[in-house]
Amino acid sequence: MVRLDATPPTEFVFMNREGMNKDFFYMYNFLFCDLRVKVLFDDFIMSMFWILDIASMQLHPNRWAAIQVFRALCFNSYVLATPRLFLHYFYSRPQDKAQWISLIWIPKHPLFHPFTSYKNFKTGYFKVTIRPVVGKNHFYDSVGNPLFPFYWQQCPRWYE
């Protein structure tokens, strides 16, 4: 469904599809080793990106960790992980168009305290290229629209 490619030094995470012939998105290296994230995102992850209007690379790594902990907590409690439930405990408040998005823990709803701190993460990423035929069913809806933003969004949504 996808092809994983190293990114040349001339490509940056905030680039879009301009001049490219296939859709793609970028992913951090550590997400797969440390957090066990899968490239074939589930509905929960794709919905989070859609609601916040962000590409996968715009979510700060520390919040990727919080999402994975939340998913595990829900799974072990036999609760369906949904963006609405997750966003009961966190909110987003984009600071600047060029920044990564962090989800801020709501103190009056303490489910768990974030515990991970990723630093120096901005250089370890690769390109996930969507294969046009076989990737279509997983990454696009029935009329051909992407199920989440593939490219860096200039104006992510506030969610409180």
Concise description?
This protein is an alpha+beta fold and 160 residues long. Helix content is 26%, strand content 14%.
Note the gap between the termini.
Answer: 35 Å
Total beta strands = 5
Compute the CA-based radius of gyration.
Answer: 16 Å
- Spell the H/E element sequence: EEHHHHEEEH
Strand content: 5-15%
Which percent bin holds the helix content?
25-40%
Structural class: alpha+beta
State the helix count: 5
Characterize the biggest β-sheet. Answer: 3 strands, antiparallel
What spatial form do the alpha-carbon principal axes imply?
globular
Low-pLDDT residue intervals, each spanning 5 or more residues: none
Mean of pLDDT: 80
Q: Order of strands across the biggest sheet?
A: 1-5-2
Structure write-up:
The protein is of the alpha+beta class. Helix content is 26%, strand content 14%. It is built from 5 helices and 5 strands; from the N terminus they run ββααααβββα. It has helices spanning 30-33, 43-52, 61-76, 83-89, 136-139; strands at 2-6, 24-28, 90-92, 103-105, 125-130. Strands 1-5-2 form a 3-stranded antiparallel β-sheet. It has a two-stranded antiparallel ribbon with strand order 3-4. The longest helix is centred in the middle third of the chain and has 16 residues, at 61-76. The protein is globular, with a radius of gyration of 16 Å.
Features:
about 160 residues, alpha+beta, 3-stranded antiparallel beta sheet, two-stranded antiparallel sheet, 5 helices, about 25% helix
